[in-house]
Amino acid sequence: MNSKYTISMYLLKARTFIALLAVVLFFSFMVDNYFTVSNLLIMTQHVAITGLIAIGMTLVILTAGIDLSVGSVVGLGGMIAGLLISQGLPVGDSIIFFNIVEVCLIVMVFGGLVGLLNGIIITKFMVAPFICTLGMLYVGRGSALLVNNGSTFPNLTGFEELGNTGFAFLGSGTVMGVYLPIWIMVIVTIIAVYITTKTPLGRYIYAIGCNENGARLAGVPVIKTKLFVYIFSGVCSAIVGLILASQLLTSHPMTGNMFEMDAIGATALGGTSLAGGRGKVLGSIIGAFVIVFLADGMVMMGVSNFWQMVIKGIVIIAAVIIDQMQENLQHKVVLMSRTAEANAAAAAAK
Amino acid sequence: MKKFTLLALSAAVAASLSFTAQAASEKGTIAIMVNALDNPYYAAEAAGADRQAKALGYDTLVLSHSEDVKKQNELFDNAIGQKVKGIIVDCADSTASVAAVQKATDAGIPVALINREIVKDGIALVQLTHNNFQAGSDVANRFVELMEEEGPYVELTCNLADNNCVTRSKAFHQVIDQFPDMKMVARQDAKGALLDGKNAMDSILQAHPDLKGVICGNGPVALGAVASLKSAGRDDVVVVGIDGSNDEMDSIKAGDLKATAMLQAQELAVQGVNYLDAYLKDGSKPEKERIMFRGIFIDQTNADKVNDFLYSDK
After folding, report:
1. Which residues in A lie closer than 8 A to residue B204 (C-beta atoms)?
2. What domains can be seen in chain B, in order of their start residue?
């Protein structure tokens, strides 16, 4: 009896991974060329976009917060990169052009500053994260549209004489045969996994999500920790903005619209509780894999875009239902093992 | 603190009052409503109407309804409340916008519709649209020519919830389906957007590496497809689209996008304003309510004659 529960509990725990396997298996049989190295690489490159945002989102959600501004930061970050590459930064009478590495650093710092602003408003002015980042969603999107008055920055190839060429490498370049965005996702994932599992900061993040007051009383630096997660999320979004602008060689102000929803979907799919305190970064990455592999598979199969939206929604809801089932089952197993222990103890006492 | 707030508030009110007082001109205001100001097509439409209205001595109010019928309705209410002289609108939906146009007409405000029609006759002053069918046919003809009348191809539609997009797709197939050796191996809606166009193309290219051509329902989607093919190193695939933005012109000049049809967004908007002006002057109405403008076929030979959806042969 007990072992039966344990097995189903393990299956439920690995559900995101099983869902991913199911998606891959299904489309491998249904679509030619789905399970090929080049397609898996292309799809993983798409995963990197959702995945990177989902990593930042996971840390925020673990503290029982939420960051709705990520999509806007993607758009704004891309626009700033476009501005710096194609028009430079006017300072006084002269215009400064940065090389590509500097442009990327500036945009990442900018993303971090937006996150810092979110964090300050949430912690110092006690605004609920949902409201604060919802406001920032509008501010960010509006600012992205303002940068070039609603227009795009096309042809971001840079100028040879200004030394700012090579932007395309970030989004479409390969290192050891693997696209650079995938490497970036791997690196950021390792950093986030290390932070959440091996450092005091990681413990603080979970502690705040479980019980903020308790954490504060126990001496957890709540404000600093929260500032950190929003900054981290902002930087992740800015990186995605850079990658997308690089892939398209164009920055479009509406880029990243609704990305927050995909990121939240991936996070929920990966088993992170929106109430905070429970979940894993790796789970969210697998969640992002499921969402993107499913979407790309449907495109390759020729499923209508309208159906794709319906199916994506159903998958996310189903994932959370299964998540609840696992919660219940886990409680049950814990209770059962306790009763068994108590019974054994009572028997021994007799 | 309170005093300061009060002072600031009254200053703001005074400033806004003086602003409106200053802005009011004798001929009154024309409200210009388009779908979104971040899309080059709609921006050009708004710019054309804005320039012409100002040239004719009107004030303008440029608004965007974001393809949202509810928001469009509110904007119409605002415009009516503000007693604008005329409304020029690229409407949010061909059936759901009828009531809003009726409301304005009932209030004595003439409405000129541009780009998208409404299903009812006799309400709007004039309905100016692009001949999407002709534009689609022109592009499809060149597409077939470039494909040498055979081979696997892909259609990326722009947004099948939009009538114009459906018409373009029908026009494509009217032409292409006459050639039995042209095989459509995939058809996908890319929501009219650059990134969706690229992502869809990435996946389709994996499923059908043998494809020879991509025909796209609008400009951003075509540019997305071009970006995808470029990063895959496939310069052998023919890409054509419809729209005619400056970004597309750059791509055509570079030889990446092979052809497009430029929709005369500015011309449409300018004529719309002219019809409003004539009606406001002496109540004269155009002979026909529905007027179509042809799309201008563009390839490398004439791409440099286009600027912001305005074709000039000089």
Report:
1. 299-300
2. 25-130+264-294 (3.40.50.2300), 132-262 (3.40.50.2300)
Examine residue A349 and state whether it is found in any structural domain, yes or no: no
Q: With an 8 Å Cβ cutoff, are A247 and B231 in contact?
A: yes
- Tell me which residues of chain B have a C-beta less than 8 Å from any C-beta of chain A: 37-40, 43, 160, 186-191, 193-195, 198-200, 202-204, 206-209, 220, 223-224, 227, 231, 246-247, 250
pTM for this prediction: 0.82
CATH number of the domain where residue A69 is located? 1.10.3470
> Interface pTM (ipTM) of the complex?
0.77
Interface residue of A152, A174, A251, A306 to substitute, partner B, most B CBs within 10 Å = A152
> Residue A126 belongs to what domain range?
2-332
Q: Which residues contact B259 (CB under 8 A, 6 or more apart)?
A: B139, B142, B143, B146, B240, B241, B252, B297, B298, B299
In a domain, A345, yes or no: no
Residue A338 lies in a domain: no
Nearest CA in chain B to A245: B195
pLDDT over 70 percentage in chain A: 99
Task: Say if residue B166's pLDDT is above 60.
Answer: yes
Q: How many structural domains is chain A composed of?
A: 1
